[in-house]
Design brief:
139 residues, alpha+beta, four-stranded antiparallel beta sheet, globular, binds guanosine-5'-diphosphate
Length: 139
Amino acid sequence: MALERTLSIIKPDGVKRNLIGKIFTRFEESGLKVAAVKRVTLTRAQAEGFYAVHRERPFFASLVEYMTSGPVVISVLEGEGAIAKNREIMGATDPKKAAPGTIRALFAESIEANTVHGSDAPETAAFETRYFFNAFELL
Ligand code: GDP
């Protein structure tokens, strides 16, 4: 399996409930390294640009509102097969369908406030990583 980098976001509901440490522990105990990290409050434009692929979805406005409602912790995770591994640790989008023991099964409040984001493919991981981190931060 290849060494990969993937983008992770601890969403506003996770930061608000003081879950940063618990979530990073799960990444680290699964063999992923936190290769870069920042805590920011997204602007509307940043959130809209990040979720541009969902622009036509009925929940887009609500999703942007939610993602700008408080600080988030954005990180780059690195490891063997990091993209799929992170998706596995996160669990399904809808916490009701997330496998037991996954972050979303344990912590998510709803299908929208589902605590974490993770890139779903190599192309999105490359786009999303560069969206939030510059070359110096990714050294
Ligand atoms: P992900 O890759 O598992 O995060 O899921 P998607 O790419 O399909 O959706 C992006 C984000 O939009 C999700 O993580 C949720 O925060 C939100 N979302 C997805 N589906 C719904 C929905 O049906 N309703 C609402 N309100 N939000 C949703």
